[in-house]
Amino acid sequence: MRTGAPFKIAVFADLHFGENAWTEWGPRQDVNSIFVMNTVLRQETPGDLIPFQRHHFVIYLGDVITANNIMIANASLYWDQATSPAKDRGIPWASVFGNHDDAAFEWPIEWFSTPGIPPIHCPQTATSYSGEECSFKGTGRLELMKNEIKNNGSSSSYGPRNLWPSVSNYVIQVSSPDDQQSPVAFLYFLDSGGGSYPEVISSGQVEWFRQKAEEINPDSRVPEIVFWHIPSTAYKVVAPKSGIQKPCIGSINKEDVAAQEVETGIMDLLANRTSVKAIFVGHNHGLDWCCPFKKLWLCYARHTGYGGYGDWPRGARILEITQKPFSLQSWIRMEDGHVHSEVVLS
Q1: CB neighbourhood size of 178 (10 A)
Q2: Nearest residue to 313 (alpha-carbon basis) of 22, 24, 40
Q3: What is the pTM assigned to this prediction?
Q4: 3-state DSSP of 267-280
Q5: Domain ranges of the chain
Q6: Mean pLDDT in the chain?
Q7: CA distances in angstroms from 266 to 98, 205, 210, 273, listed in the order given
Q8: For 40-58, how does the pLDDT look when each residue is reduced to its tens digit (9 = 90+)?
Q9: Which of 3.40.50.2300, 2.40.50.140, 3.60.21.10, 2.30.30.30 is the CATH number of 7-344?
């Protein structure tokens, strides 16, 4: 982060690039999603800010693509499109996997002929990116991450090998350029599964977090912020029953929490760490609230992409970290420029 300047993070959730890739509708939604991201980044970074990349960051919070709708093996082509707004601006980014990012291809019902047999070759539009015949094997988490980290702007990581096929487990240190060795905050990323992996944060991931935190933040003096895609069962506990009322902050509460399959201890660990300020998830497109849970906050992002279910207006959650004294604030920036749901999370 730049000296004296707040460190700002734009969280883009549930973009769902490649959805209905065999139709005209699908690619058009990807264009719309890029417009949302470009608009948010432009509105949150007015003027000529130099060096740009030192105090801005983008997080892609899972379901970057809808792999079960993508009929080519190289789904990373769609992934690269999704991350292009950050890359084109020289803003570093990081990503975490959601339940659709490496899901198996699902044959569209309209492909089936009268005898019930799908065509051997997929539609012409499906091969427009690479010019090669379609493959339905999909692209796994490791391959997607391998492709992403080739980009100079990506801060993502494979994570520990012993946790694979749960891949996007890693931590990023936010520091001031005046003192690169002294962290201002730690950003933790956890793979909450889905697709080729159960929808769970495993006990192995919990132990990894515990060990990593003891290694880099043993006295819990440095604030910690956590990101994953599928909400934990704790989100069900704090979810507003109808309208969003204080102490919760938000604008839409249009569906029930769709939580992970099981809780294996991550919430107990985080709730007992005084350094953990907030957890951010996506997955539920019709929820954008933040609610307190014990000593931390449980927050949703905002559905950013035009892919995926729901027709609620699109936007992005913004986080702002200030250093001295430490402060974590958040709000939601909508595609039309409107700002709402401002909340102090520290």
Answers
A1: 11
A2: 40
A3: 0.93
A4: HHHHHCCCCEEEEE
A5: 7-344
A6: 91
A7: 17, 8, 9, 11
A8: 999 997 544 433 445 699 9
A9: 3.60.21.10
